[in-house]
Amino acid sequence: MELRVIEFGGDLSVIEEFIVGKTRELGTGGLVVIDDWCGPIGRAKKAEIDSLIRIVETSDCGVIATSSAVGNASGTGPELVARGGSGISGKMRTLMLLRHPTRESYRILSESEGEVLLRMDEYGLSVV
Question: Fewest CB atoms within 10 Å of the CB: 5, 10, 47, 88?
Answer without folding.
Answer: 5
